[in-house]
User: What shape does this take?
Amino acid sequence: MEVICINDIYSSEVLTYFNQFGVKLPVQDKIYNIDEYIAHTTGKIGVRLAEIENPLIPTYHPILGTIHMEPTFDINRFTNLLGGTILEEH
Assistant: This one.
């Protein structure tokens, strides 16, 4: 599914953390293709984008502790090409 990034603003703490691992971030107004939907334990949906490949980074998981995974981006940072909400597709 093609989507448009509508929010590429991250806190300085998140940017500092991602920068130490060389994480690439989506850019506002650019079109991407959703490669994968990830349901997080927080109830949020994250997406991985076909155009952005990132390294595995240490991430805290409330049950497993620290795990290494490729970062995801909150689905709410994107809209479909018509400006509508994106729903997780199965």
